[in-house]
Design a protein that fits this description.
With 396 residues, the protein is an alpha/beta fold. 40% of the residues lie in helices and 20% in strands. It is built from 13 helices and 16 strands. The chain is elongated. The structure holds adenosine-5'-triphosphate and magnesium ion. The site of magnesium ion (MG) has 3 residues, from loops.
């Protein structure tokens, strides 16, 4: 058994250089420490292409593994055992590890970073494989081995492991600026949050609630979803916007077919103002192109017209099945399908227009003083900070 004492984090060959690379590493380091903050016994060090987390003998390997697998910017990681960078020490330990394996075939994969080490990677592979072949029944299979021993030789320390665990990939959350994501209680928008975070964006959320037509359960569901996705970035600010009054006026002014279009246009106007007030440089939504009312391209165009801030729609070309698979993977699916109505389902019109025009939308909007109502919504923003896992929120 490899006696885990060091968690080795790889962030691969970065395409970023210079200052960007420094920022990347600094932010990754910060996010990693934040993700592992419940393990105060851990200590950290880093080189230009690795972060090392120094474990204690009683460290909770499974718990740490779960946390680390959610940190964006990590290409892969391994729980390793440190030995001195000395060929005899490496050979001896690799032999012991191999002797305990019941499986038959093996392969040695060496990465020699320390160019002063007397053997190159291939030389180390041969030397270690040689001692295993001479002292066990194992045989080498370079194509389809039953087990692999990885050896990473650094100045002074060498790290041995049998596993290489895929990381979450992407960029460290928060490195690429802040987005205000429109978060409903549905399946799509939490997945959109995950995709945006994966691109290194910090996500804040805005949710439109229409009490008493929508219940406290519906709001709690949104906060629970926010808490789940915040695992990927740390605490998340969620703006809850009381939307009832404006929504009722929309229905009076526009009637059935244009109500959804106007409602979306108002949501965008409010979101843009909240974004500006909170230093977000784009809006995000879980929208994908489809066939129902507000999903047609005409509809997206008509809704988008009211704001100038860029709108990021990470799911725009994804199939529902792919979105559901991702929702399952990040653990939001079961909560998303809970049957609490959100503001859109309550006021669901019977015959929504599928190809709205800007002209008609503007005509209906001219029938009431929406600007003041939009501003009221912004002023009555109830922001909540949602944290990973622990369902604690503190009102701002
Ligand atoms: P979702 O599963 O995310 O609810 P959907 O498939 O139901 O998406 P729509 O109802 O058309 O599609 O919503 C599209 C997007 O509009 C959502 O992904 C979300 O970004 C935003 N949205 C809808 N309703 C709300 C709401 N009450 N509060 C905040 N954003 C919302
Ligand atoms: Mg929805």
């Amino acid at each position: 058994m490899v006696q885990y004492d060091t968690l080795l984090i790889r962030y691969g060959e970065l395409s970023t250089k210079g200052k960007n690379r420094k920022d990347f590493i600094r932010r990754l380091d910060q996010n990693l420490r934040f993700a592992l903050k419940q393990y105060p016994e851990l200590t950290y060090s880093r080189t230009y292409d690795r972060i090392y987390v120094h474990l204690q003998p009683d460290s909770d390997i499974e718990g740490i593994r779960t946390k680390v697998s959610k940190v964006f910017g990590i290409s892969s990681f391994s729980f390793t055992e440190r030995v001195d960078s000395d060929l005899e020490a490496i050979k001896a330990r690799c032999l012991e590890i191999a002797q305990e394996k019941k499986e038959k075939t093996f392969k040695i994969i060496t990465k020699r970073h320390d160019k002063t080490f007397p053997l190159n990677s291939d030389g180390i592979n041969r030397a270690v494989a040689g001692v295993i072949l001479a002292n066990t029944d194992h045989t080498v299979d370079v194509h389809n081995p039953d087990f692999v021993i990885r050896i990473e030789v650094r100045e002074g320390s060498t790290y041995l492991t049998c596993d290489k665990i895929p990381g979450a990939g992407g960029y460290p959350a928060g490195i690429n600026g802040k987005v205000l994501l429109m978060l409903s209680g549905g399946i799509d928008s939490p997945v959109a949050a995950y995709e945006l975070m994966k691109r290194g964006l910090k996500v804040e959320a805005i949710h439109f609630a229409s009490p008493p037509y929508t219940s406290d359960n519906a709001k709690q569901k949104v906060l629970d979803l926010a808490s789940m996705v915040s695992e990927y970035q740390g605490a998340m600010k969620v703006h809850i916007i009381p939307f009832t009054d404006l929504q009722l006026e929309i229905y009076k002014a526009a009637g059935d077919p244009y109500a959804v279009t106007l409602m979306r246009r108002m949501m965008f106007r409010i979101a843009e103002k909240v974004a500006e007030n909170n230093r977000c440089i784009a809006i995000g939504t879980g929208k994908s192109v489809g066939q129902v009312a507000s999903q047609t391209l005409e509809s997206i165009a008509c809704i988008n017209r009211v704001i100038s801030m860029p709108v990021l729609r990470p799911l725009v070309c994804m199939d529902k099945v792919e979105i559901i698979d991702l929702a399952r993977k990040i653990g939001t699916y079961e909560t998303s399908i809970l049957p609490y109505e959100d503001c859109c389902t309550i006021f669901d019109p019977k015959n929504p227009v599928t190809k709205p025009t800007v002209k008609k939308a503007e005509y209906y909007e001219s029938r009431f003083d929406y600007e003041k109502m939009v501003q009221d919504c912004v002023d009555n923003d109830q922001a909540v900070i949602v944290k990973p896992q622990e369902e604690k929120e503190s009102f701002l």
